[in-house]
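Batch manifest line 324
LIGAND: PBG
JOB: complex structure
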Amino acid sequence: MYLQKRNRILRKSAAVRSLVAETTLNPGDFMAPLFIDEGENISTPILSMPGYYRNSLDLTIKEVKELSSMGIRSILLFVKAKDEVKDNTGKEAWNPDGLMQRSIRAIKDAVPDIVVMTDVALDPYSIYGHDGIVENGEILNDETVEALVKMSLSHAEAGVDFVAPSDMMDGRIYAIRKAFEENGFTRTGILSYSAKYASCFYGPFRDALDSAPGFGDKKTYQMDPANRKEALKEALADVEEGADIVMVKPAMAYLDIIREVKNAVNVPVSAYHVSGEYAMIKAAVQMGWLDENKAILESLTSIKRAGADLIATYFAKQAVELLD
Ligand code: PBG
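JOB STATUS: finished
ARTIFACT:
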């Protein structure tokens, strides 16, 4: 057989494959999400996320030091608010001595180099488990944006590097950027969850923070999984409004969206490999149906290949260990 081209030549050995690999993962690609609890020396396993824990701040700081020593450059913080502080205004979200604000200060103090990002949305503080203020069963947009601005300012005050609004209200990026400018926070960035879909894959996360919506669902603010062009509209609007980084979420079921957004914007694109995506791999591994290490690296490589410059993933630490 005569062939003018033999494509298998570039696959013939591990060395050749690595020479021509188009996508390579680095520790600096990952953002490690961390769940923080009140108290001391507390580490609570999250049942639907095997191997993942909600830790008190002292243990979180230890973890951040370890992540940083492994080459991970950024963390994404979430806190579990106590039931007593939850209401329908979300005011605990901008308490200067709230768990989030204390965590930002303590972590930046202990590990100044780590890039600290914080989730901005009202759900952990809402008696209804919704990302915004509720009135007659509706999630109010403009009132919620005012609350998110206060929340973002309090994170900026505490020293956060990037706020990450995950609420999908209209106009919040513009409002937060304007408030940062007006208050002298000219070095605080915004990573916008721009194309965040109303996804069932957030289920385990809501177990972790006890933040599942008390009524209805999030479909009046998070996006319809059926839509692609709408993701571009959201991402382009957020860039226009002042987002430094945009995000697509979830990741694996939305690789097409990651690519579309990557091609459309001139800012870095991140993707969130969410809790349910983590849980699916862990569950199949527990059943003995998937090779865990291979599943992790293949998933993360696919997300990066799709166009993600940054990946938020509960596998950050495991992935870095595998890359070594
Ligand atoms: C809060 C928020 C959610 C996630 C990140 N920020 C849950 C939700 O919107 O219901 C999901 C993360 C994950 O599933 O890993 N607004």
